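Action item from last meeting closed. Structure (401 res):
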């Protein structure tokens, strides 16, 4: 029987290297899921010669599916496979690999859904381990996220140093973790450079991203290439905004278009959503992004950001048109959503939307805005507690108006 996954592994010429899962970037999510299910079945067979390694492969495949789709069941399967790998492990090195796999799953769950406690859980899992390169890398990735939540430049630079150490440790490795660490380092360096307006840091981030793009040809690593291009575009767009540089804005837009050209929406739905959000997509695209994220699972970070952006666009359009009825319609929809139990980030996004409605109405009718300050402060607090600083900053920006 024709098996596409095995065929691609042969194409890559690394059929015997279980760490090299780069071939997954060439297949869509349906085939990734099929590969993950097959790997889990194979690992669970009594005839499996190395169940610990087989479960680790299954965990990596489920994480790949979760990263592209945001599906909570894929995250759950990744957790289960990592725990099965731990139970099947006999050597100390295999136990460390299994704990590292579970820590990566927790880290991905945080990236997708927030929850800073997950970072602490992941850190505790690997704290007792000896310090294999993969464990050092996961520790560095955890530290980078904690530094972003902290926000202080010194913490960002400390985390960047840990990522730098991890990058050197994984140099030449076939493990997809190596590219994830490089993306994290570039992103953190870029963030620190923009915050401090440090040309040296910005130059370093640009060189790192260029090297990653060059090392990931579209015909072999389209998703990693697209993520590096999108990160480059986001950094360039931020710089263009600071400098009010129109050519730089155009270049950033071109980079985002290039990122979107690397894959189709059904190949990696969340990557497609991220590119749409970064490119400042209009309301029609935002509707599609929000719906896709909602179908993946309530409380998805990207979904909450799309939800907030969509309500902001609708409120702005109603205000420009001087249309109180349109504002009433947006308000009614948002009130309906906050009246039922929801994920904290979705609730915070809707609270920000309600505050926008109140502020727009106040400007239209030259009237008091009401309790918008309390609404926004609460939304910012919830977003920060859930580990979504972008959403918190949206609320804080409105508070300052």
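Sequence:
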């Amino acid at each position: 029987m024709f098996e596409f996954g095995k065929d691609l592994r042969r194409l890559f010429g690394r059929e015997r290297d279980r760490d090299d899962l780069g071939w997954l970037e060439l297949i869509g999510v349906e085939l990734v899921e099929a590969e993950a299910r097959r790997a889990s079945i194979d690992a669970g067979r009594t005839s499996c010669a190395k169940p610990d390694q087989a479960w680790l492969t299954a965990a990596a495949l489920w994480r790949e599916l979760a990263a592209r789709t945001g599906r909570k069941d894929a995250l759950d399967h990744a957790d289960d496979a990592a725990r099965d790998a731990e139970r099947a492990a006999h050597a100390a090195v295999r136990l460390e690999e299994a704990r590292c796999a579970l820590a990566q799953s927790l880290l991905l769950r945080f990236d997708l859904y927030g929850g800073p406690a997950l970072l602490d859980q992941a850190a505790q899992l690997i704290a007792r381990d000896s310090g294999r390169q993969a464990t050092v890398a996961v520790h560095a990735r955890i530290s980078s996220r904690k530094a972003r939540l902290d926000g202080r430049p010194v913490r960002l630079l400390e985390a960047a140093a840990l990522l730098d150490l991890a990058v050197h440790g994984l140099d030449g490795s076939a493990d997809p973790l190596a590219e994830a660490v490089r993306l994290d380092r570039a992103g953190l360096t870029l963030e620190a450079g923009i915050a401090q307006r440090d040309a040296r840091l910005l130059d370093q981030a640009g060189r790192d991203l260029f090297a990653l793009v060059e090392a990931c040809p579209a015909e072999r690593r389209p998703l990693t290439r697209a993520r590096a291009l999108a990160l480059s575009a986001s950094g360039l767009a931020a710089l263009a905004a600071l400098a009010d540089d129109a050519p730089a804005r155009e270049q950033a837009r071109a980079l985002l278009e290039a990122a979107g050209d690397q894959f189709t929406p059904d190949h990696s739905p969340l990557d497609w959503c991220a590119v749409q959000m970064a490119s400042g997509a209009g309301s029609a695209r935002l509707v599609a992004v929000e719906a896709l994220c909602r179908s993946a699972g309530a409380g998805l970070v990207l979904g909450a950001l799309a939800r907030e952006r969509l309500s902001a666009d609708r409120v702005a359009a109603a205000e420009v048109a001087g249309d109180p009825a349109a504002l009433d319609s947006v308000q009614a929809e948002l009130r309906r959503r906050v009246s039922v139990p929801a994920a904290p980030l979705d609730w915070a996004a809707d609270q920000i939307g309600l505050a926008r409605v109140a502020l727009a109405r106040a400007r239209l009718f030259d009237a008091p805005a009401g309790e918008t300050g309390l609404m926004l402060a609460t939304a910012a607090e919830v977003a920060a507690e859930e580990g979504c600083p972008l959403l918190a900053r949206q609320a804080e920006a409105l508070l300052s108006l």
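Note appended to the action item: The chain has a mean pLDDT of 89.
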